[in-house]
């Protein structure tokens, strides 16, 4: 029985380590790809907005639980060719953009750099 528990622990540790390593490599790869992409400024229109809220529950030694949330803001832009791209934006940019706004979108790869009306 003790050998089986050790095996399960080793397998779970390897799976968790693999997921962490994959996530780090994927993040570095995206960052590197964005850095090597050209900065482009194109006419675009805001066609949609959405936000994603992740909730995290935390327990503590006093028996009480706490909760924190992370919100990620996304805006979908449509360029002249009809192609659409969804980019993550800061909360201040999200609040200033309205569906239907037209202007110049500046981006680098999947990195949002700005929108001027």
From TrEMBL:
Transmembrane segments: 6-29
Domain of life of the source: Bacteria
Keywords linked to the UniProt accession: Membrane, Transmembrane, Transmembrane helix
UniProt-recorded name of the protein: DUF2500 domain-containing protein
Source organism: Jutongia hominis
